[in-house]
Structures are given as C-alpha cells and as structure tokens.
Amino acid sequence: MARPRIRLLIGDSVALGPGKARLLEAIGDSGSIAAAARSMGMSYGRAWQLVQAMNGDFRGPLVERAAGGRGGGGAVLTGLGRDALDRYRAMEAQADAAVAAALDEFTALLKSQE
C-alpha cells in the first residue's frame, strides 16, 4: 500500500524522518542503541551517528546513554525525545488521512503489484 513519508528538514539535513523515528522507537523499546541497531539491520556506528545528529538538531538530546560497566550500559529516550517521536507519529497519521483519497486515485494509475 502506498503512503506518504514525512521528512522534517533543517536546511539540507533530515531532523526526523521514517528511519530516525524507527530508531528512536527501537531505542525506547530495547533500552540500548546497539540492540536497536541490530533490530534494524544497522551498524552500531551508523545508529550512534544518527543519534548524535538528532541530539544536535533539537534544543536538547532526544537520547541519553549510560556508560557501560559491570551492569552494562544503556540508552533512554528523554522527555523531549518521546515528545518529538509522538508529534512525528501524529503528523504521519494526519498526512495519511489528508491524502488518503488522492493517494487511492493516484495508485489506481500504477501497474498492479500482484
């Protein structure tokens, strides 16, 4: 099924888009950047790079991490991170609803995917 994708840009960089939103959700679910990266088939280095970019694009960090050690490290979404993700998901739902009829008409022009 076709659906719109929301990418929020700051200049030329994507502050938040589908991939970064999935990464935030995975970090929130797993409590770990490494586990989130594994669940998405992404390297830890790439996930960490995306987290740093997001933390730098917003007025505060979206993800905070705890250093490893005897009990292991971890990562959590901050209140700002949860708020940004919730607002992003709400915008996605609004965009889906706003273009649903037009998208159905548009996809009727495409070849069958069967």
TrEMBL record:
This is HTH lysR-type domain-containing protein. GO terms for molecular function: DNA-binding transcription factor activity. It comes from the Bacteria. Residues 22-81 form the HTH lysR-type domain.
